[in-house]
TrEMBL record:
Entries under Pfam families matching the protein: Sld5
Organism in which the protein naturally occurs: Plasmodium cynomolgi (strain B)
Protein name: GINS subunit domain-containing protein
Record family assignment: Belongs to the GINS2/PSF2 family.
Localization (cell): Nucleus
Amino acid sequence: MSLYDRALGELVVVKALVDIPPLPTAFVEGFDIKEMKAGERQWMPIYLAITLSSFTYVDVEFPFWFYIKNFINIKEEEYKNQSELFDLPSPYFFEICFMFIDQKVFSKVTPIETVGQKSYFKYMSKVAGYVEDIRHCRTEKIIRHLEQQNVHSSHIYIPNLQHSETHLINLTLYSFWKYDKGLNEKANSIDFTSYLLEPFIKDEEDEKDANLLQDL
């Protein structure tokens, strides 16, 4: 199951635009979706919200943290502490952000902050900018943290790491062990040169094959 599929199980608040009968979801979610009259609100998994929104049965409300002021606070906290990652409000923070930024996911969704005040597209472009700033800052902190680690240790612990950020560890360690075979037996830290230059590094076997083809 992909991270996106897992994020679809997270809960959001929806506002019913029409009367909606109860939905038996206890066998999957552990609770049932209660009957809703038009105008009533209720928590439900994102995958159900997407389906009901596609029929314009509900209006999906943005998560409580999905507001400009909260994004500003998260960004400030992330940049303030350069030694640790900030504890984001959801384990699937980036996946959910991109669901709302991508207008094709929810057919009916309206951020409260834009009602009668701001352009929806201008608002979402500003949100996307904050999300990318937060992601960039966290990526730099993760790399710095890895540079200080002993790669020969059996565990690497990074508090508040998002599921979507674990690939950074996999990629950097893979590149280190692949291209620094002579160095990694002695060194205790990660050399990120090989990671950054990975697309431009050729194996000796690849070079031999290329020379053989040229001779032919």
